[in-house]
Amino acid sequence: MQRLWVPHRMVYVADHHQPDRTDCPFCAAPARTDEDALIVARGAHSYVLLNLFPYNNGHMLVCPYRHISGYDEASAEEVAEIGALTQTAMRVAREVMGCHGFNLGMNQGEIAGAGIAAHLHQHIVPRWASDANFFPIIAKTKAMPQLLGDVREAIAAAWPVDPGPGVQRPAGGARA
């Protein structure tokens, strides 16, 4: 048997850390510390955090603070900020991680593949020319080369000092 160490998933194994299934994790995240919630940036209407179950290293999500399920329910301000934060996240990921491209997307509704269909979120998945290998196909396992806390720290530290109107740097993300 081979082992793939994924310590960040311990939160889903330990009974005392199980999230309340009735709570929305995207509504709960902004009340937690940036490090604990894996938040890399906060805006006036939305925020950016790492995906706890990433497809690739640096997989980020942009979520409005409001609990809405559809993109068509978002206000003009939310749409604009989600777009601005997505652009900044892409620039930062290129700078910090040296990625070659991105997959961007929103799955609207459970039938469309949304894991958390009740709260709108956009995926930003960094891609590299060499990120595909046999693991997901043969072993049904995705190898992640960095721990989530390390990725969050690097992205938060590289987030621009002046990312735009209403967008704030997260705690612990100060840049010299």
Automatic annotation (TrEMBL):
Q: Which InterPro entries match?
A: AP-4-A_phosphorylase (IPR052908), FHIT (IPR039383), HIT-like (IPR011146), HIT-like_sf (IPR036265)
SUPFAM superfamilies for the chain: HIT-like
Where does the HIT domain start and stop, copy by copy? 26-134
**Tree of life domain:** Bacteria
Keywords attached to this Swiss-Prot or TrEMBL record, sorted alphabetically, are: Nucleotide-binding
Q: Which CDD domains match?
A: FHIT (cd01275)
Concerning Pfam families, the annotation shows: HIT
Kindly list the residue ranges recorded as spanning the membrane: none
Protein name in the entry: HIT domain-containing protein
Organism this protein belongs to: Leucobacter allii
